[in-house]
Amino acid sequence: MEKYPSPKATGMSGNNYTTAWQSPSNIALVKYWGKYPGQFPANPSISFTLDKSHTRTSVEADVERSGSLKVEFSYDGKPAPAFEDRIVKTLRNWEAHFPFLANSRLRINTVNSFPHSAGIASSASAMSALALCIGDIEARINGDSDENAFRKKASFIARLGSGSAARSVYPYAALWGASPGIPLSSDEYAIPLEGIAPVFKTFRDSILIVDPQKKEVSSSEGHALMEGHPFAPARFQQAEEHCLDLLDILKNEKLSDLVSLVEKEALTLHALMMSSSPGYLLMKGGTIEIIQRIRQFREQSGIPTCFTLDAGPNVHLLYPEKDESDVRMFIEQELQSFCKEAKVIHDRVGSGPSRIK
Ligand code: PMV
């Protein structure tokens, strides 16, 4: 697998094109929470790109049929017609940007590295993998080989499918959302974060699965509740400041500042949910127990480990690679008992999507 393969490497015969991409999930450090129509974020966000938690998607396209878009979808090689409507809807939404889709028959197969019930949202990895495949086919049709334009368009298109997916197309860390003071930042697509300190490129993320069930309030409903939220203006301002601070932290390896910023972001996200109208609570008892133990462990060990949360009860424990054995022991001894069936996914920051040969 190549890291930034040229779109030219894709297979083709006649009007048929095939391609396959593996694309990871990501974990936000500064959270995107609140959006405007057109899937534009209310505030900028920054995430680490993950590695092991990924989706692998292949697309076979017959692109010059007359008629309309047709999709056959399978999950892990088994037909999954129940998902076809949602995928057709996503692809129709992409037709304005990929005109070839309107006349195409697509065979799409996808598989996640993590089970559906793992409590990890698959939309970022799934939407980015599909966007990379469709973008790759377009680049072949047009004979384009501009790598930066290819990534930017994949990020743009992934965003239309699921906002946070925009950040998954880049290695290590990405920023999405127009940010005063951050050149090239955009609400339309994410940009890769250049120049982050080496320690962060191998950072670990152990995902503690407190509850794998589908959450009671979806992210879409949560974003919508930010409209008219009394704390929204202050929150959006804070997120902009946190993005600037985090860039400095990531470039200059300020580990203790990372810890306080990341935990403040996670708790702010959940505080916004609790103070929405209606308010709701996605943390479980186990989430709180884990958070308290992490803070105690950090105090006692001096290891710069911290937690973050996405819109659910599961805890992401972030720490440097060099502390892996101590943190793993801590997880086994003190945290795993709060996880459903002792489930922990040991992931890490990764080098981004890659084409599957
Ligand atoms: O991309 P969505 O609509 O699933 O929203 C993601 C929201 C958070 O995971 C809570 C934060 C983020 O920036 O990823």
Topology of this protein?
Blueprint: E1 11-13, E2 16-30, E3 35-36, E4 40-41, E5 45-62, E6 70-75, E7 78-79, H1 84-94, E8 105-112, H2 123-142, H3 147-161, E9 173-176, E10 190-192, H4 198-201, E11 204-208, H5 219-224, H6 232-251, H7 255-274, H8 285-301, E12 306-309, E13 315-319, H9 324-335, E14 344-348, E15 354-355
Parallel strand pairs: 6-8
Antiparallel strand pairs: 1-2, 2-5, 2-15, 3-4, 5-8, 5-9, 6-7, 9-10, 11-13, 11-14, 12-13
Helix pairs in contact: 2-3, 6-7
Could you describe the 3D structure shown?
Helix content is about 35%, strand content about 25%. It contains nine helices and 15 strands. Strands 1, 2, 5, 6, 7, 8, 9, 10 and 15 form a nine-stranded mixed β-sheet that branches. β3 (about 35) and β4 form a beta hairpin. It is globular. Bound molecules: (3R)-3-hydroxy-3-methyl-5-(phosphonooxy)pentanoic acid. (3R)-3-hydroxy-3-methyl-5-(phosphonooxy)pentanoic acid binds next to loops.
> Uncertain regions: pLDDT < 50 for 5+ in a row?
1-10
**Count the helices. How many?**
9
The percentage helix is: 25-40%
User: What radius of gyration results from the CA coordinates?
Assistant: 20 Å
Give me the secondary-structure category: alpha+beta
- Measure the end-to-end span: 7 Å
What is the succession of H and E elements?
Answer: EEEEEEEHEHHEEHEHHHHEEHEE
Ligand catalogue: (3R)-3-hydroxy-3-methyl-5-(phosphonooxy)pentanoic acid
Write a short abstract of this structure.
With 357 residues, the chain is α+β, with helices and mostly antiparallel strands. Helix content is 35%, strand content 24%.
